[in-house]
Amino acid sequence: MTETDKTEAYIQKKKELLAQNADCGNSHYNLGVAYLSQRKWQEAEDEFFAAVESSPSLAEAYVQLGGIRMHQGDLEGCLFFNKKATETRPKFPIPYGNIGFVYLQLGEPEKALEPLLQALSLQPKFVQAHTTLASAYFALEQHDKCIDHCERALKIEPKFAPAYNNLALCYHEQGKHKLALENMDKAIQFGFEVNSDFQKMLEAHR
């Protein structure tokens, strides 16, 4: 059985469960996730809305709705649904991390700080939140704080390429070109697509 066949069988099973119990929020949520894996965005969205209607505390469904909005390029919609997730479950770290990321994408790094710090207070080993926070500090020219959070991320996940890229950017700004090159090389090694202009600029110092 192929992965596609397995997913179709899984979807059919969930539909059968929902035919017997249409108010099962978890079944709607799981069906939505299966549709996401097939890139069936509208079907997934319908199931996530059904999930929160049946189970209003299912914050994960709001996060998934935010993810769909992000995929569609609707940053404000992504922000809205992740805020709904924090209202639904205030101690769930993922939506706070997402809110910080969206503010960064909107060019408002100062607004990103509070939700990202909240995410990390709830989950200190949240690697993505450390790196997004580092990016916010870099945008605010607080390079020492950027470096600190990149190093914290790498203690948790030593191959997390975006953290190495942030370190390369910071060390370049500080004129520490050898360190910048070392971190750029690691970012590339672990799969990060470094900005070509930045790469050329650093290569000149090799």
TrEMBL record:
Renumbered ranges of TPR repeats: 25-58, 93-126, 127-160
One Pfam family assigned to this protein is: TPR_8
- Would the keyword Repeat turn up in this protein's UniProt record? yes
* Record has Repeat as a keyword: yes
Q: Which UniProt keywords apply?
A: Repeat, TPR repeat
InterPro entries, per the entry: TPR-like_helical_dom_sf, TPR_rpt, Ycf3
Protein name as it appears in the record: Tetratricopeptide repeat-containing protein
Organism in which the protein naturally occurs = Desulfonatronum thiosulfatophilum
Which lineage is the organism of this entry classified under, starting from the top rank? Bacteria, Pseudomonadati, Thermodesulfobacteriota, Desulfovibrionia, Desulfovibrionales
